[in-house]
Write a structure and sequence with these properties.
Number of helices: 9
Oligomer: single chain
Number of strands: 0
Shape: elongated
Radius of gyration: 18 Å
Order of helices and strands: HHHHHHHHH
Distance between the termini: 54 Å
Strand content: under 5%
């Protein structure tokens, strides 16, 4: 299988997970989408567990790159947080949830090895958010009485929840409604 086909498999598997969850797709679905045999998929991904682990690893790697790009483009905490929040609107029209949200909502069905990967994915979010919040507090652009990590948790859970509510209600605006309110409350 050529590298582009492997990349297609990873990309399509990610879309299927983000749309319906881990349990809602099979190798037959993936083979049909890509136009190859199930045996071709098994050659590179002997099990669905192998496939979903690689999907998560690739997504986390892209996510780290995106955060680096945000840091390079934006100089202040509010702008960084705003651009981060906008990521939760990506692929809204395709009815795709953020991957970390899709994986966590399907955690009981995932292979046990995925629990630590899902946690690591959320840890990436929280570590970056905590760092941005700390810099915003130090610069006086964010006002928060508690620990920076608590505000990071509030931001992440507001965006993840908004993502689910907005998609369920088919409202792009509702994805970021709570997040916008959090930013208004903490602006220094």
């Amino acid at each position: 299988m050529s590298p582009p086909t492997r990349n297609q498999l990873l990309a399509e598997a990610e879309c299927l997970i983000r749309r319906g969850g881990y349990s809602a797709f099979s190798y037959a679905d993936l083979a049909e989408k890509i136009g190859i045999t199930k045996a071709s998929i098994h050659y590179h991904f002997p099990s669905k567990q192998n496939l979903v682990e690689e999907v998560a690893e690739a997504a986390m790697s892209r996510f780290v790159e995106r955060l680096g790009e945000i840091d390079a483009r934006q100089t202040d905490a509010i702008s960084r947080l705003t651009e981060y929040g906008a990521m939760f609107l990506e692929d809204f029209e395709e009815r795709l949830r953020p991957l970390c949200c899709a994986l966590s909502s399907d955690l009981a069905a995932l292979p046990s090895s995925m629990g630590s990967k899902v946690k690591s994915y959320f840890d990436l979010h929280l570590e970056w958010l905590t760092r941005v919040v700390e810099s915003g507090m130090a610069a006086g652009v964010l006002r928060w009485e508690g620990e920076a990590t608590n505000l990071a948790h509030l931001i992440l859970t507001t965006l993840e929840g908004g993502s689910l509510v907005g998609r369920a209600r088919q409202s792009r605006a509702e994805v970021l409604t709570g997040f916008a309110q959090v930013l208004r409350l903490v602006k220094g």
